[in-house]
Amino acid sequence: MYDAATAAFDRADGAVMCAAVADYTPDAVSETKIKKYGSEMCITLRRTRDIAAELGARKGSRLLVGFALETHDEQANAEAKLAKKNFDFIVLNSLRDAGAGFRGDTNKVTFIDRSGREELPLMPKSEVAERIADKIESLLK
Question: What's the CA gap between 83 and 108, in Å, rounded?
């Protein structure tokens, strides 16, 4: 995924990121079936390459949009991610609000950029997508 995303970004005017495929991957791959031994197993994981951070480092004047799903210190964590990954804006999802998140057709998000934040009310996810597209369009003008 890293190779495909970085290659495609080289030819793009920008990118809208989504959730990471995986932040960690198994450190070793077994060539054979791992047999059951005992009641527990430990697998060593290692960090995957951060696609969004790499695109942020390469972005230049291109547009880069990110997403954050946070469960605590939402604003601070999203602002840190905005800066670390060099996003133009980030869409913060919160699981604290009823009707928001993944288990329904509505969501409540906050747009955060370097000049501030815009908290959107609870709305259909299709309308959230339209609002994201509108913000992208306004930044490309």
Answer: 22
